[in-house]
Write a structure and sequence with these properties.
The structure is a single chain. The protein has about 600 residues and is mainly α. About 55% of the residues lie in helices and about 5% in strands. The protein contains 23 helices and 5 strands. It has helices spanning about 1-30, 75-85, 85-95, 105-110, 120-125, 135-150, 160-170, 175-200, 265-285, 290-305, 320-330, 330-340, 350-375, 385-395, 405-420, 425-435, 450-465, 470-480, 520-535, 545-550, 555-565, 570-585, 595-605; strands at about 45, 60, 205-215, 220-230, 235-245. The strands form 2 sheets. Strands 3-4-5 form a 3-stranded antiparallel β-sheet. The protein has a two-stranded antiparallel ribbon with strand order 1-2. The termini are far apart.
């Protein structure tokens, strides 16, 4: 009995042993190096150890025996294969009988490769026809790169760019610069413009933003951007035009105000201007001297400060002054130490009064930066956030707190006064309330209690105008006034034959009509009331995604949402247009014509 069990145990373990031996052989075969420069087919079955640098001792890959091969001769190798491995020897002989009996031919036999035909070889060196699909695809891709990447057209004439394209596809012959500027870019512009027109023509409600800017060659331009919500409830923005605008950049709608002008007294304004001026001079001194930058890095390491660079104020960038002040205060100790070490810059060391003023400004302006940045987006709804943000400013962020300096309090009061006056305009206030109403996250939460009923009535009235709804009484009156006179009133007209009533007509409900009737004022108000009573989503929810899911539940209110939620909170989209133009009208391209600027900016922002 014990003997039988042992036999079974050995039988079970045999496959495991075979697998182990196979794995070992595979590892040994991979460890053997091939013959350097070997041309005979025999070297498919022989290799060398990695330690055999001169490759004088071949080893059989099938049985791992060492076979002597003096002077690199293969006679002994063929003899060993014939005696010890007859099947492999027969296969080798068949390969040797073919015209190509070298190692390369054997590898092709093993991998089932085939030599390319003569026609294929010549085709690989033949350039594409200009009318071929491949040539058009590459040319269009280069055109899109020029437009979307805001690269100059003369990049196609640079040797480095041409070498790159040549490596990627040797058969492609790149057209010249004039072909791209006169043919490809106008063609791409026409196609892109047609697509934008198609998108815009199907839109019922949209918003426009505009801004004025001056190019590097002091040419005035005005950019216009359209914002709308498409059928899939996606907020879209398209740059319509960048037009040459040789008029004064003035006007009530384009004027910019500064909230700091509300500060009092005048002495406080002067102190703030002086502190900010000192900050600018220090930043400028370090930006123009690499030695000071080097010393600043050393002092930062000693003081344990983060190795940050100073930030410059940019007049065209929102929040750049606050960012400059914040970074200056962060590095103030290191900056003072570096400035004191140089006699020429000791006068730039900020006084404690300057530092205190900058800290007060930073404390008041710091929390506003994130809000201004968030409200400047164009890919998500922002206008409905204005009322909640103003409520947050008035009650929490800009409210006076214990520990605030007189300057901090003055700055907060000045900002609040400026914002409240700016958005207290009757038309603007109505617009913001309507936008908040159709946002499922807020609805009436941030509308003043005394204005809630007024905004509801306004929303119902707008929906009536949208769908052409009228009261039932007025509809009957209009129908009566537009109907032709009865036959008995005009004797010249033939009397119509009286139609026999069907049995089903007696069961027809009152007010039911065979024609499609517009919703009444009462049904509109009912839908609006049901929408306002529905629980709202979380404040982090995308309102457009919410409307996409519930449009069928409130189809009339959804129309109102499309009208108001497409409005951007700021004109940052138009500002991005002239930021893009700044990358197009560079120092080397300052002589571009206005029409060319319009096309390049249009393609850069709409492709």
């Amino acid at each position: 009995m014990l003997k039988t069990m042992d036999t079974r145990q050995v039988a079970v373990s045999c496959p495991d042993m075979q697998q182990t031996e196979t794995a070992t052989q595979a590892a040994q075969e991979e460890a053997l190096l091939p013959k350097r420069g070997g041309t005979s087919v025999i070297w498919l079955h022989f290799g060398f150890n990695s330690t055999d640098t001169e490759q004088k001792t071949p080893i059989c890959k099938l049985c791992y025996k060492t076979i002597p091969a003096p002077d690199g001769k293969t006679t002994n190798l063929f003899y060993h294969l014939q005696k010890a491995h007859e099947k492999e020897y027969s296969r080798i002989q068949k390969i040797r009988a073919k015209p190509s009996c070298g190692t390369t031919g054997a590898i092709w036999e093993k991998k089932n490769y085939s030599q390319p035909k003569i026609q294929q070889s010549f085709a690989q060196g033949t350039p594409y026809e200009k009318t071929s699909q491949r040539h058009k695809q590459i040319t269009e891709a280069i055109s899109r790169y020029i437009c979307k990447g805001m690269a100059p057209v003369y990049v196609v004439e640079k040797d480095s760019f041409r070498d790159l394209v040549k490596v990627l596809d040797p058969r492609y012959v790149m057209p010249g610069r004039k072909h791209f500027s006169k043919v490809e870019l106008p063609r791409l512009y026409d196609a892109c413009r047609a697509k934008v027109e198609k998108d815009v023509c199907s839109v019922m409600h949209y918003a426009l933003t505009t801004d004025l800017w001056t190019s590097r060659d002091t040419q005035p331009y005005m950019s216009v951007t359209i914002h709308f919500i498409n059928k899939d409830w996606t907020l879209c923005a398209r740059c319509l035009q960048t037009a040459y605008f040789p008029e004064d950049h003035t006007g009530g709608m384009l004027a910019q105000e500064n909230a700091l002008k509300a500060l009092t007294p005048v002495s406080t304004k002067q102190a703030v201007e002086r502190a900010v001026g000192v900050c600018k001079k220090v930043v400028s001194a370090f930006s123009k001297s690499w030695k000071k930058k080097r010393e600043l890095a050393k002092v930062q390491a000693v003081l344990g400060l983060p190795p940050h660079q100073l930030i410059h104020e940019s007049p065209t960038r929102w929040g750049s002054r606050q960012m400059m002040i914040d970074r200056f205060l962060e590095q103030e100790k290191a900056l003072s130490q570096v400035l004191l070490a140089d006699k020429k810059t000791r006068h730039l060391v900020p006084s404690w009064q300057d530092v205190a003023l900058l800290e007060s400004l930073n404390k008041a302006l710091g929390p506003l930066f994130e809000f201004t940045d968030a409200l400047s987006g164009e890919s998500y709804v922002s206008v409905s956030f204005l009322k909640p943000v103003l409520h947050l400013f008035n009650n929490e962020i800009l409210s006076q707190k214990d520990g605030d300096t007189e300057l901090t309090k003055a700055v907060k009061d000045g900002i609040l006064k400026y914002l409240n006056e700016k958005y207290d305009d009757h038309a603007t206030n109505n617009l913001l309330d309507m936008a908040t109403l159709v946002d499922p996250r807020f609805k009436t939460a941030y509308i003043k209690e005394e204005r809630v009923e007024f905004i509801k009535m306004r929303a119902a009235a707008e929906l009536v105008d949208m769908v052409g709804a009228t009261a039932p009484e007025s509809a009957q009156t209009a129908a009566a006034s537009s109907s032709p006179p009865a036959a008995e009133d005009d004797p010249e007209l033939p009397r119509p034959t009286k139609k026999k009533k069907s049995l089903g007509s007696y069961f027809k409900k009152a007010g039911q009509s065979t024609t499609h009737s517009h919703p009444s004022r009462a049904s509109i108000e009912l839908e609006l009331s049901m929408y306002l009573q529905t629980p709202g989503p979380d404040s982090e929810t995308d309102p457009l995604e919410r409307w996409k899911q519930h449009e069928t539940n409130f189809p009339l209110v959804a129309r109102l949402a499309r009208k108001y939620l497409c409005i951007p909170a700021t004109s940052s989209s138009s500002e991005r247009a002239f930021s893009a133009s700044g990358n197009i009208i560079t120092c080397k391209r300052s002589c571009l014509k206005p029409n060319t600027v319009d096309q390049l900016v249009f393609l850069a922002l709409n492709l």
